[in-house]
Amino acid sequence: MPVIRTEFDIDAPHQVCFDLARSIDRHMESTARTRERAIGGVTSGLIQLGESVTWEAVHFGIKQRLTARITEMDEPHFFVDEMVQGAFKRFYHKHEFISVAENKTRMIDTFDYTSPYGILGKIADVLFLERYMQNFLMERNLYLKRTAESQAKVR
């Protein structure tokens, strides 16, 4: 049951960071490498509490679908998305935004998941999956940081 945690300080207001993190459109931009696209539920704009999105993407050369629902939200401080259906046995993904100074936000991203297939899933975690997910989340969060900071400069 790996837990992946990343933390970034972003030179932008926390509402900007919060909205970018729940933007379906920005998510697709940040995951272009895996051709991730929203194909069901909320497919554009800002996802809200209780709403879900179905993603289609290519990971490890295999086209996959995953549906996640926003199960908790305290705007603009945090939201949680949880897998409803997909490749994992389960996941709980918390996105937190803490104002640390004027126009400066600490983004804390915690991804807690369980791989499917019992012991085979645990072996996959050790061999490649946890590292793959760390890189995937890091790439996405760096994209969010760059985008938020460039938007904050325009304001």
From TrEMBL:
The record's listing under Gene3D superfamilies reads: 3.30.530.20
Q: So which domain of life are we looking at? A: Bacteria
Q: Does the keyword Cell cycle apply?
A: yes
What does the record list as GO biological process? cell division
All residue ranges annotated as the Coenzyme Q-binding protein COQ10 START domain in the record: 49-121
InterPro entries, per database record: COQ10_START (IPR005031), START-like_dom_sf (IPR023393)
This protein's UniProt keywords: Cell cycle, Cell division
Provide an example Pfam family for this protein: Polyketide_cyc
Is-annotated flag, keyword Cell membrane? Answer: no
The molecule here is called Cell division protein
Source species, please? Brevibacillus invocatus
